[in-house]
Fold each of these.
Amino acid sequence: MSTATLLDEQTIRIVKSTVPVLEEHGAEITKHFYQLLFRNHPELKNIFNQSNQRKGKQPQALANAVYAAAANIDNLEAILSVVKQIGHKHRSLNIQPEHYPIVGENLLKAMKEVLGDAATDDIIDAWAKAYGVIADVFISIEKEMYEKTKLETGNWIGYRDFHVVNKVQESDVITSFYLKPTDGGILPDYQPGQYITVKVNIPGVPYTCQRHYSLSNKPNSEFLRISVKREDSKDGNPHGVVSTFLHEQVHVGDQLSLSAPAGYFIVDESTKPLVLISGGVGITPLTSMLEYAVEQQPEREIYFIHAAQNESVHGLKDIIHEIASNNKNVHYFIVYEQTKHPQLCDKVGYIDLPWLQSILPTNDASFFFCGPEGFMRAINKSLLKWNVQPDNIHYEFFGPQGTLD
């Protein structure tokens, strides 16, 4: 995916020369970009997660993506994996080619307004050319994703209505929703670890809300299951609009609109031991992986490690316990940050490297982890310190793509 033949040398040189500027001003530029975008095209609030906007996560994620594109503008192949990760999110949100010129126009305008005189005509012209090439790459990859989805049995493009056939409270903060297609059609054979997007219209909220939720069960012909954590107000952040709506307003018999399963965080087919490490609601995609692995990889040694604040917020624990009890190749460990009942867990405190080394027979395993960003950063640091090969380390962010550096 070299852009050397698509962009002249001067354009490439100018774009790459802006990398230090983007490192310094990228978040400011992208924050201003979203302000311009929603002012000029308020209808796009129906697509972008407004909670992530308020928290600053989305602008920072975009800044990271723009920085990576600038640094690799002469060889976008180097960031192909990132492009595909974003492409999955875009496909699940039904992003279309016509959205890209709108984004480009407002991004260039934001660069000009934030950088002022430093954003010369040559720089803006170079970035306009570069953005066109980058947008074409995204559009091409996403077109392939749409076409692949369209051809897959049981899958669909856009949104499909499902009704809630069961609602189960898994913990004080996590509730599972069992969903069947309203049209009575078949379900897709998705990959364990993938997510769907829920689209809802909430009374009092002036825009449509869309949220990604991991599927917490293995592929089957009967239902989809999502297990949703209610995000309460804390640390100055408002409550989760969609999660609160689902917990309090959606009941058995109600209908939800879903996009088809998407995502790159999927269980592998290796014969190496499978280590699944979850924190909080990060347990959801790993439960799907576990259910799949015990059925399809019965000879594989599996280590399922879950960390939670305490037993009251530990979701899906009965499901995992039953699987571990019925499968000798599954080794189940629980870590509670604090508890009055230490007999309910294997460790009180946090997951750390010495403890991991004490329960795992080898570092030559496939590691999958998911949870809060700080939790994942700590796990990643421990695995790298243990000399786990980077190719054996897999993780997923809930929300905009971040970094564990």
Amino acid sequence: MSKVGFTVVNGGSIVTPRGFTAGGLHCGLKNTDRNDIGAIRCEVEATAAAVYTTNVFQAAPLKVTRESLVDGRLQAVVVNSGNANACTGQQGERDAYAMRAAAARELGVAESNVAVASTGVIGEHLKMDRVLGGISSLPDRVNGESDGAEQFTQAILTTDLVKKEACVAVEVDGVTVHIAGAAKGSGMIHPNMATMLAFMTCDAAIGQAALHQLLKQATDNSFNMITVDGDTSTNDMLIAMASGLAGNRELDAGHPDWEAFAEAFTYICQELAKAIARDGEGATKLVEVSVSGAVSDASAQAIAKTVIGSSLVKSAVFGADANWGRIIAAVGRAGEPVNPDTVDIRLGDIIVLSQSSPVAFDEAEALSYLRGDTVRIIVDLHHGNGTATAWGCDLTYDYVRINAAYRT
């Protein structure tokens, strides 16, 4: 499948880029037999960058990872699911450092080149005997085959129903560069990061400053534009690693192939973000809100986020109710400049509001459209040139059921 400037690699994974291996296994942190610890390893020190949750209460692994990334280099990531190691005090920090030390030893890399990530229940100490036992078994599971990538993607899931991964190929300096990603996330998802972990691998040569800037920009147009339930977690983390083994000249914003590379990189982020939104806890539909005609892109982003985060909009979509009043109300309370006389709203191709006036539409057609598994809400403000797109899901009975007993 080809996109502008790049090609989607069906069946590709985080081990497709040159130099990367991965694996995972079940060590006993979860009550089920699903994998709960995994690792990614690069055969060389990789250029690396990360973005983190904006929650004031940040889990211990984030402190450790920030420390490892001071020099912008990583060679491995160790991840556990089933326990967030968040709000666990000094013991939690000691446990995160112990994970880093054990992974470095077992994977044969410098301790300062290991990132640590955790996801799961907040406020419970890790069962370190199980964690360390799992890490000691990782070297036998970490490999460059599709099975290794599969085991890793399974190891990072919590309430997720499906794995999230994507891979593309793009030409840089006449050589093929691969970019891939894997993520987890289903609940406690809200813009400005979410209960999500995401890991990107790439074999391009790229400067650390350029990678960090690109990661921030791509995040703003992907992971920071999704919501499931309006909650932002303590553990969110997105790490990107570039091995440089593709053989291209070092990328930066001045490189002639930068635009194509950045487009491909952003595509991976958006595909993972949409997969998280689609897999929202209890969700039955992916909802996409596109806003155009805003006074600026930032204004369009704020409006799109407000609409996608509205519990009333999400509930109406779940009920397949073409209640555009929920949408226009969310637009109006976003705190952004809007001309109340010039707004158009569509549900897919169905016009329900034109120049802020109701339009007669076929209710049966709207019902059929809203019963689909993807719902697009298009808002044109006719007030400027700003555009943005946000993604989310419907709000269902199952969301309450899942979260009413998440810990117990």
Amino acid sequence: MEPDATFILYDIASLKPYTENSCAPNPWKARYALNFKGLSYRTEWVLMTDIAKVRKGFGLSACRNFADGTAFHTLPVLVTDPKDPSSAIGDSFDIANYLQKTFPDAGAGDLFPEQNLDYTLPAHFQSLVPLSERDDDVHADYARFQANVDMAFSVHTQLAAHGMRWDPEVEEAVRAEFLRRIGKKSWDELGIEGEAREQLKASFEATLGGLAALLKRDASGPFMLGAQPSYADIIVGGWLRMMSKALPKGEWEELQRWYDGVFGKLHAALQKRFGEMK
């Protein structure tokens, strides 16, 4: 396949304008990867209430399940041939694997260069089930890394809960669905304030310490391999994009300064080089 093929990336519609406010981490991993490879694509925005219908329309199963065993349908989806619905790929890691296999030398080069990705969650998180657990061995080191990164950020997303915004026509339905998923009765219960919030922020900063160490190992930065970006940076970057939009402004500025500013530098570099919205 030629590297100028046109793809369709299905992303989660947030608050309009979508191009400014989009922040779902997994679609951003796919977007960064597409831009890393310098490929032509367009974004199709999907309201959260329509995600299951879109995935089922492409014959894609859910990426994972909720704690109660019900299907969790989410995005991204990448359609690699607009004339062939069966060409749809429904997982951000699978999308990256496909792009590297199909376009190995395109754009910025190798998405999966060899490197040490030894990032271990603190012991009290290790008993949790990884949100992105995989059963294959394609780039297995990156897959394990993603599982740990996803968990590190996910267990602290309560800090960003009240910063998430959606189109007004579906906001009530989306909030109701979020409450159903976690067994809460009111949106206020999702928030966290005062001393409890400070403790969760401290936990978040400590949990990211291992990631910061990877970003500091090559002083030339801003990526884990110095000047060479990789999918490991993109995995972290997808979550940083979410936090940049959903955390209170002052707390996002704090996060960017943690560990000598490595996360702020990584986010800025990814946005500058691979953050174009198409």
Amino acid sequence: MKILKKVAVWLLSLTAVLVVVVWLVYQLPSFGGVSEGARLERLRQSRQFHGTRFENTPPYVSLLSFMREMKAYMGDEVREPQFEVPVVRLPAEQLGRPVAPGMRAWWLGHASVLLEIDGVRILTDPVLSKRASPFQFVGPARLHPAPLAIGDLKNVDAVVISHDHFDHLDMDTIQALARGGTHFYVGLGIGAHLERWEVPAAQIHEMDWWDSAQLRGVAIHCTPARHYSGRKRMDNSTLWASWLVKGPDHSAYFSGDTGYAGHFKEVRERLGAPQLAMIKIGAYGDTWLDIHMNPESAIQAHRDLGADILLPVHWGTFNLAYHAWEEPVVRAVKEAQVKGVQIVTPRPGEKLELGTPFVNQAWYLKPAR
């Protein structure tokens, strides 16, 4: 009995220590802030907020199965490139130049796109750190270098953030941009994270679905998505979103993370069809489709939007799912050909300019020896 009591005391002590350690870790700035006061009251006024959290309509029902997830995890797919990804490095002076008329985009990897539209420079979900993690010593590491270094960030007018997961909202990148005066357009509640990171309040613009803001003649529309949120746990404490950016002459849509649903058609009906659609195609699984659509659904989403050109994003940079590394883009290109969708597959850092022909290369396939 004495031994059992000693073991019980030891286990209780260990549990208490672990609880304290976890609590202390969660206090690190990288985990962000909490909505309080006026910010919390505004959250509660949102039509997407139900009880104590944001919810999809209809609600997301988890279909996760431990056995199915383990089977997928133990699959033999090659989940990292077996060759050096051909990254096109953006010269530091690129962001020192004035934004020329027209629209151009550089995919920087994952969901990060540098967009120049009608004189305004915008970044989507900028993550330029080595890891998509609250720590830079552990967590999913980049499968290729970023085409642009954090230290080279300057003259970026605006950032749009789709949600607060670590592969979409990176503290180090945000802080670097904030020091340069960048303005941040984010879903409800995400401003608490930015304030924790000492981003000036005047540079934070929290928006609900269908809210709009103006930036030097370019309209930034917060539009729906179907996902979830939380930096410490899946508590849906912040609002996920997609974004439509519309200038006098050009327009672009950014899906963020989302399952396939009717919001793509609704965006087109309310705001018109964009010229460029940056839509997620990667990080999906059979049990995730309600919040992480697959490549075929991405092609359908593009068609629902009525967009001219599809730039696939959210693939090829972090190992976050169970499918093969190149599978999302291979499936997306195949489906686009079947459905007559104009898809572009630039290398990370390669420029896409609307009005200029773009020649696709299957750079994501293993080079022949």
